[in-house]
Amino acid sequence: MMNLYARDLELWSVRADAVFQSNFAYHFGMNIQQAIEAPRWATRSFPASPFPHTMHPGDMAVEARIPEATRQALIARRHKLRIRRA
To answer: pLDDT tens digits, residue range 56-68?
Structure first.
């Protein structure tokens, strides 16, 4: 499953399990544009939907736009962060 979004005149794709985040943000008070532009995060701590359902406990990717204080709080909770460009 893949969704395409336009942001800053560029097309962005979101695959499989990460699609949920945009839809979740939209249903909890953000308009569709706010949901598209919100900083993204993804965890691989749960089994992935596509076969072979791999999982990587504690592994989390966040965009660089996530505030440093938030990133440090996640690290303090033993998440293994990977910072992605926004």
So the answer is: 888 988 889 999 9
